[in-house]
Amino acid sequence: MGKRLVIGLLVLLIIGTASMAYGVSGYLSSFNATYGTAGTAIASCSLCHTSPPDLNPYGDAYVNSGYSFRGIEGQDSDGDGFTNIAEITARTFPGNAASKPAPVDTTAPIVTGFTVPATANTLTVSVSMTATDNVGVTGYLVNESATAPAAGAAGWSATAPTSYTFATAGTKTLYAWAKDAAGNVSASRSGSVTITLSTADTTAPTVTGFSIPATATTLTVSISGFAATDNVGVTGYMVTESATAPAASAAGWSTTAPASYTFGTPGTKTLYAWAKDAAGNVSASRSGSVTITIATADMAAPTVTVFTIPATSTSLTVAISMSATDNVGVTGYMVSESATAPAANAAGWKATAPTSYTFATAGSKTLYAWAKDAAGNVSASRSASVTITQSDSTADIFPVIADQYGSVYSYAPVATPVLNTKFDDSKPLGVGPVATGGTTFNATVRTGAFTNPVDVYIVLQSHSGDPLNIYVMRPDKTFVPASDGKLVPWKKGIKGTINESLFGSIPISRMQQGRYMIGLLITPSGTLKDYHYWMTGFDIPGEGKNRDGDDGERYRGRLRIRDLPKRTGGSYIYKPVDMPVLNTDTDDAMPIGIGALADGGTTLNITIGTARFNRLTDLYVTLYMPASDPFNMYVMKPDKTFIPVSKFMVRGDDDDEAELRGIEPWKSRVTGPVNESLFGTLSTSEVPGGVYRLGLLATPAGKIVRYSYWLTSFWVE
Question: How confident is the model at residue 147 (pLDDT cuts 50, 70, 90)?
Fold first, then answer.
């Protein structure tokens, strides 16, 4: 009888499910950088957590999206009727239904009262105005136009005006408007007045206030306190450098007092302030003097005095040593691959000299160093060259399976399947009460109908029972390692709907304790091109164990775990970090770092860091790529190349039986500590897109038993 793993739904813990432990401050920094929320109420752990490490619905959605804030903007994670991006814009929490934007106010204010006198003998007339609003009136405006003003137009005041000054006499109509905080503008209420100036106005205005600073270092000086009065009304203001009164019809008059004046040259200057009225009377002047001194322009550019880089490198990131001087002071440094001098306002300048530079590709490269000063002078460049040779291409590091690719969707466990016309929102695998902390497990698959024939695969993995194998369920609902090469779909060439419980309801006490993940993979019949792969996972707590012998027979046709390799271990899953975190407690250790990509950057640097081990230890580095090879686990050889576990599957005399033999660890019989960058710094543009899960498996030397297995994930666009 061929060796088979008869295993029920051991649920594949998906990349980035809610059970991935604690949040990393780098994600909050990435969120703040994406949405400019630093210092706001939502820039806190409550954004993604109910109470750390427990995730709220927004945190779950972020993890399940492969750590993409942009990718979940259109979702309503907390179900409060507002999309995530709407809540972020309103600075409310997208994972808390009790925190949501205030309802949009669409009700305009109403001007309830507006009166002007029927007649007047001055250009300034009194007005009386009142208004109401369902929320509150925030602005009042009176003008001579029947066209409603914009809420952002000039002239609005926080209080109702008590007077209005016309430019000329005659019959006039005034319109009163009100607005609210939401920008709603009321309908107008109007009133008319007939202004008759009984006698000719011969009284000129009086400038009552005018001041400028005594000294200035720029040609533009501020004006303060410019005010004037008139027996009828002031209609114009002007500032000149001439002591001769301007004509009332001269160019340059403004209806409001100016706040600044710009001179043509430096030196000691005198300004004269004037006012006029509608009758053309011009006031006497009021003056003020200022002495303007302009510092001598800095025309001297900085000099780059030192710039060195290594002659050769095996990493895309190279170290830099740079310094520069200037007659006043260096204010910016830049390193680029262009021999063309950058503009002083170009992007990329830094306040301190850079210490490293990352190239996009290997080869012979030349860098140019530049410096600038506060006056905008840019130095001549200083250059240096480096030859970068990388022993491994990214294609060697991350294998690409020809003509095999798919889309991956991960989600937190649900008790029953959830159907949706959108792939991203479908949850076709349910796991029963265990999804919400219950004590029974019931694997259910549900789908809609398919337009064309499809093949359906059930995929699973047990991190705590067999970390090196991916299992596939056969049509008889028994599981076999995918690495044995006999890949058979659970259902082949179907078009109809699926609604099926795989094993019935099983007490979790009958299952082996540990962490599981399960996937549903649907592909066009006969090919693995353009597949869709949904993944979810859960933990079995307590003292559950493998059931075989009589117990296995008792559960024949349901969930049975028989022939599972005699391996036991603890698995620890954490969100990606830029550098390894060492800890003697295995629960808190994070031995795999992925570089800047962990914080939203564009470079990947896989680093392994461990504390010292208390015995001789073998270390295995594992890689799972569900978007390009869902049926294979990869292990890294000592030469840092990844090969599929299927390469180690050896068949005996019975062709139906196979087992893993000869898997070589990355490092053998070590005691630590370990601190090593596997491939140097890689640009994510060189890494095939998709989801990646990296693992570090530490076992006693010579055998894969009683192991510790750490896993982290990342996503490349």
Answer: very high
